[in-house]
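Fold this complex.
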Amino acid sequence: MHISTLGIRNFRNFRNETFRFAEGVNTIVGENGSGKSNALYALRLLIDDRLAYRSQRLRSTDFCRALPSWKGHWIIVSIGFEDLDPSEGCQILRHQVGHMGGTQSGALTYFFRPCIEIRRELHELTVDGADQAAVQAYRETITDDRYEAVLSGRAAADFCDDDVYESVVGVFETGTFPDPDDDDAAVLGVRVSPIHREITCTFVEALRDVVADLRGYRNNPLLDLLRGTESTISDADATAIGDAVTGLNTQIAGLSEIRDIASGVRSTLRRTVGGTYSPTIDIESSLPANIDQLMRRLVLRVGDTIGADYRGDVAEQGLGAANLIFLSLRLLEFELKLAGDRAAHFLLIEEPEAHLHTHIQKTLFEKYSDSATQVFVTTHSSHLSSASQVSRMNVLARAGGDHASVYVPSNGLDADECSRLERYLDAVRSTLLFAKGVVLVEGDAELILIPALVKECFGVSLDELGISLVSMSSAFFDHVAVLFHPDRVRRNCSVLTDLDTSLLDLPADKEDDTPKQESSRRSQKIGASRQARLTALSDDNEHLAAFFAHHTFEVEFFRDNQDAVRGLIPVAFASQARRQTSEERLASDQASVYGAEVLSLATAIGKGWAALLLSELIGPDATIPEYIVRALEFATRQSLSESALWSIARYRCAALDRPITPDEEQGDIADFLDTFATEFPGDSFSLFVTVE
Amino acid sequence: MAKKLNPQQSDCVSHDGSALVVACPGSGKTRVLAHRVSHELHRLESRRGLVAALTFTRKAAEQITSRLTGLGTKSDRVWTGTIHSFALDWILRPYAPYSDRLRRGFRLVNESEERQLLQTFRTQHDLGPFVPLLKGFDRDGALVPQDPDPLAAATAYHAHLQASRLIDFDTVLFLAYQLLMTVPGIAETLGAMFGAICVDEYQDTQDLQYGILAEITTSSNGGCTLFVVGDPDQAIYTSLGGVAWSSNQIRESFGLQQLDELPLTGNYRSSQRIIDFFTHFSDHEQPIVSLADYSAEHGSITFDNQSVTRAQLPNHIGQLVVDHIQSGIPPNEICVLAPQWRFVVPMARELAGQLPAVPFDAPGLSPFRGEYENVWFKLARLLLTDPEPRRYRTRRRWAADLAREFETLTGIQHSYSDPATLLRCINAISSDEVEGCAYLLDAFAQTLTNLGIDIESHDRLRQLHAAFFDGARANLANADFGIPDTVSAFRRCFGASTGVVIDTCHGIKGQEFDVVICFGLLRGRIPNWSRIIPKTPLDSLVSPEAEANRMLYVISSRAKRHLHLIAEHGHVTANGVPYDTTYEVPEGFAYDVL
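Structure:
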């Protein structure tokens, strides 16, 4: 049995998001402030019996601030279960939350919703055909103390579906609310008790003081583990130990040093207050002789693996070791004491990088990934541990403003697609998963030149535009491009590649090809099939678009920036004659001639090196090839701010000495961009802001 | 309780696999059942194996629970209750989404509401007071066949329930059965949850109830063992559809590999003379042996055959009661039985008026009749009983039950889920109200405040609150009940019964008394006219002779030492014909003469 989904609606920074989980170790990755703790809190509302009762009742401040007004809305947190196999010890859980009808799935849902009177009132206003003002006026009177917290099992509806939400809660725009006395149990499920008796949940906070836990009495995993053991100790053993302790107590109390102190205290007291008022004082040793109490005195002693015989207090160890011990004890407790009793163990760990070395995390989690323990780890984008797999990962991103977006990078991908993606992402995954927009390119030349072009032309870095530029080197675009999809990472990704249309004129019959033509024809064919694949992939996918250089990136770049490319000639060729030829060829109007020469130059210097040189040779007057401008525009479409546009405009006007001055204080950006594009039609920026 | 189980009893308890136990009266059936439940719990070590102990009445369920507590059995893996409640709690409520009748919400009618509704439809269809109206369903959801008028009334009644999103217990059984049949996952899940199902009084079990349980055990693939206990000789609920299935029929329907039939023939209750008397009414072959300390006592068995007139009856019974009390028998060891409910209240009034010094109890009379499943009843019984040591365990169990109810109804785990905390909170409540309902209203409100529950935000709590008080007020308004609306009267409903019990033969199921006095042994009452002149198919299931024998068997076997049977003179039928004495009372027996 495992939790397969977590849907959160209107809770804190979640407007309406769904997490997807698999058996074993799941990672929730997100930047600071993206809502990782809120996601865990939502999960704990349903599964953690250590979350205080008070905290289970939410308040108006728990509503998502992206809602125009919380009044009348519901907070809904729903978890989906899979593999509720009645023969696997999950029968009671299945009875509480399981869907019937041949599935092994189930749902447990938490509602924080207006009490029935409020819902009735809202419905009656609907029935009466009251105007919006009346509904609004009534909504204004709603307070959160008239909300109820309800736990429900086997709700079949997906509350993250807007249509479902509106049918259950109401349509706020039109002021239409359903009749609460007609609530459908098939949609909303049936009330259930908390499932705490069926599962166990361990929550390890980022800043948990585990050393204190290990020394304390409450929440001490060692004592929890030992609890109950005393009853299995034989009476003979218990009596023998009890007698020994009693003997010890007598022996200690009988020490002359102790007796002297006791009599000293007595005589001082007598001197001070007199015999009549002085209390009787004695000093005793009070080691408990009772086995139950003795067991509570047991402490864990810890040593290094290499420190041979020394064992010390847990506090002497680093926090990492203490955390490791804490987690191990909890895992063992589950294995030894609860496994027969509970259907599953959920382990929630906040930022394990704060507790555990990556390597230990990996082994610890791998060991538990097959058992009845399901692990949820939240982590920081920059600290992705090697234990986290893309297939068990949810990415939390800030979707502008004050709410979060959840991306499930592997959603809908098969195992092969996942593993290909994983292999590639190993190196650059965080860049790809967290970028606000992505541009995938073929190789080093693009990787070097595009940032330079953008910096020179727009005066900003790609980072400032929110773009991650990733070179695929030799990998296939499609393996990575699948990530960007409405079901997965909902960020725009532009794929920049070459059509590799032959520069040479090709004979009609390929049998007549020269060896050069043959190779050119082959490249052209591969380019065409790549185009077909990418086009197919991006069709019906609003987050993916492919942009093609007609021939190659270098040739395209040359067309727009001939002077810069000419600057390469002296570096490429030593002989004057060759340099002259090169000049002439570049000046040709035949693509087959200048194109071939651009490639010769690049080959002579080395593609990467040539790109580096070019990046130094360009200035603000450089032109970004059109297909690249379009790619940049697509990649930044979701995230580009008005202030970024103003800043580019200011730079552009100043650097090229344009006769107009952008005025952020006075002007409207749309008007300004309009003017700019009309005045300077060939400008890369004009193209950037006018692309459809 | 400290007594060891006898060999027959312990054979039943430790029997390996499913069993059908035919238990003679007074054979310690309830005790065996409780031990069996405990035995099953140990066998099913893991807490995943739940055990259901299903009884015919709520009271019997309470007894099982008390006994289990006495055995030191932790009860969170045991569910005890009636089969109706079982169907409601384990099938209807959790699986409502799969029933079109239930998914939009439903409520169980309380008894007073049901009576009123039935009366309304009887009147609408011009049914006389003695025309039977059967509202039970068969497995296909058809009403029990009967005359067109009552059938139309029953149909209209059910249509009304459905339109009002109400269900009654008959609907509960049919819907539960229907859910099990149409949604196979349910029986499979329940079959995996319950490691054992124990059924008390199987002879009173209805076909739909057998059907429900059989579906569960069959789906468990042998994982759920069955333990049924009962006595076919005591099958007195046939008019409600109760029927004792044979062991073969049970084994086949319940998908059991084997079902062994085991006897309990040792009677701890009655003297051998009483036993020999009541065995007249049975064709049971196994001899019943008295294991009582007083087995050889002669006691008394009398039969007043038409020698006491109708008018003298109260005096006559009063004299018997007084004589026995004077001979040292405590009042609560004496029981006066009427053939039907309608004779109980008048007799209770007469006796109480005649013997002001003798306490009388009519247990059927409670203002909360019909609301025993209501969460507010569960709170009321804690408020109306004192936290005294002998009640400690019971009240603690009630508190645990109440905490669970609150948790389910409010959907949230509360800080007071711990029964001890809840008890402290309830015990601390006091109110100056002296009127019963006003007191409860106030005490309920205080409890809610202390627990921090806002009833306004919990729809079902409020509905149940209204139903509880509506039911109580209707009962209080009913003159037959004659209960005053005072706190002290309410408290008495929960006090240990100390008075002479006045009840019907059906009402004292499972109980025993030193002295049993039964009047109205007249053909037409025992057996009832409906058996002599059958009006429905259920009526003709059992012959009038068999019915009379079973009734007499049950009546006589309640007695430990003294049995007084009275066929009073002077009752006439609607046509003016005097009633005959019940044919089956043996004439040749050596009755004592007072």
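Chain B touches chain A at residues 46-48, 50, 90, 93-98, 102-105, 183-186, 188-193, 404, 407-415, 454, 456-460 (CB under 8 Å).
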